[in-house]
Amino acid sequence: MGLFTTSSTPTPPPPSHASPTPSPDGAFEAPDRQSRAHCWRARDDFFACLERNGIVDGIREKDRAEGACGSEGKGLDRECAASWVTYFKQRRVMEHNKKQTLEKLAKEGARPMPEGMALPGDRRKPTS
Amino acid sequence: MQVSTMSSLCPRAFHLSNSTVVDTARHTTSSVARCLREPGPWRPIPSPGNKQSFRLRSRPFSTAPRRAAIKTIQQAKARARSGPFSAWGAVAFLAAGVAITFYFRNEKARLERQRVAEAAKGVGRPKVGGKFALLDQEGKTFTDEDMKGGYSLVYFGFSHCPDICPEELDKMANMIDLVASTTQNRIGANSFVDPSSRKAPLLPLFITCDPARDTPAVLKHYLAEFHPGLVGLTGTWEQVKDVCKKYRVYFSTPEGVKPGMDYLVDHSIYFYLMDPEGDFVEAIGRQHSAERAAKIIVEHMKDWKGGVKR
């Protein structure tokens, strides 16, 4: 805990996404459980900082995020692949909007649909 | 006229004579013949002509015995006190009510599952699943035929997936173990698994949507972290696109990407439960916990009566 939350981390371990291990058949290994855990922890630290500073969108409010959560942002970039970072930031905005919409609907007296109403052909976005 | 009234009358006469007559075909026909010739013993002396047919019509089609009349005052009083109800009657009524309620609840749930399971079968239904030929994580060919003989759970994803796939794969591993533990002592003895062809009651498949980066070796390394039973499938871009289309999975992977590139793939996040004939049964989504999903799967397995068709 707190390993990547401070900027004074002396020598960070080499991020797995920057130098991926080649697989025996010419491709590259995917991030394993451990590097995923590192990345998710960096993400959670970054988002906790955004939360403290009242920032929702880490992409649009890039300057504010860098000012307030610079070290956490760097930790995130170091631990996760760039596509993951973008995805996490977008997903945070989407979930924020979703939560607000649901709260608004709940205020208007809407009730959630019963479980299992979705059809197999449905597709959910954004997915990963 | 005569014949039609006779036919309704005869069973009674027949019945009476049956106790003395051996029931060979010959005797039976002879007793029927006798019945046609002579009136039943319960009837007084027949009178010819119109008078007889008139008498017959008084109880035209009834063979039931007359209701026993109340003979004594005591009987009449007892009947009047209790009415048509009795303690045994009440117990029987309640027991029947409880039994019927239970039966219909179970039956309702079963029919609902059957409806879900059969929605994908037959003509004019949207078909989910179909023929494919891909490579498993050992590099061996794996086709839809290898799925048959037992239930399969199919998931689409990719190894470079940020968060949802790993979470869902952990859930899938949980589901596999839960299904295996609930069905363990049933394997071999029941109809939903063909013990000769399959070891596990549920075959878990992971089909990649990202064939450029997910080679057999990458999948092998990746899936080993989740569950040893998982079969990872990959192929060419065309093959994967085709199988995604057959499973109605949204497929957005660009063609011609290089293994080292950093990109994400958009795809559907349902588990597809497929029956031993390779037909789609039900989709299990993010909202289901591993426990709930395992329960759904086991219930469908218990419903399976089709046997194994090859």
From TrEMBL, chain A:
Give Gene Ontology CC terms: mitochondrial intermembrane space
Q: Work out whether the entry's keyword set contains rRNA-binding.
A: no
Q: Name the InterPro entries for this protein.
A: COA6_fun, COX6B-like, CX6/COA6-like_sf
Pfam families for the chain: COX6B (PF02297)
Keyword terms of this UniProt record? Disulfide bond, Mitochondrion
Where can this protein be found?
Answer: Mitochondrion
Top-level taxon of origin: Eukaryota
Classify the main location.
mitochondrion
Annotated stretches, region: Disordered: 1-35, 105-128
Q: Record's family?
A: Belongs to the cytochrome c oxidase subunit 6B family.
Identify this protein by name: Cytochrome c oxidase assembly factor 6
Lineage of this protein's species?
Answer: Eukaryota, Fungi, Dikarya, Ascomycota, Pezizomycotina
From TrEMBL, chain B:
Q: Which residues bind Cu cation?
A: C161, C165, H267
Q: List the disulfide bonds.
A: C161-C165
Molecular-function GO term, any one: copper ion binding
Output the PANTHER family linked to this UniProt entry: AT19154P, ELECTRON TRANSPORT PROTIN SCO1/SENC FAMILY MEMBER
Q: Name one GO cellular component term.
A: mitochondrion
UniProt KW keywords? Copper, Disulfide bond, Membrane, Metal-binding, Transmembrane, Transmembrane helix
Species assigned in the record: Letharia lupina
Identify the Pfam families for this entry: SCO1-SenC (PF02630)
Q: Where are the transmembrane segments?
A: 85-104
| Family affiliation | Belongs to the SCO1/2 family.
The entry's protein name is: Uncharacterized protein
Q: Which GO terms describe its biological process?
A: cell redox homeostasis; mitochondrial respiratory chain complex IV assembly
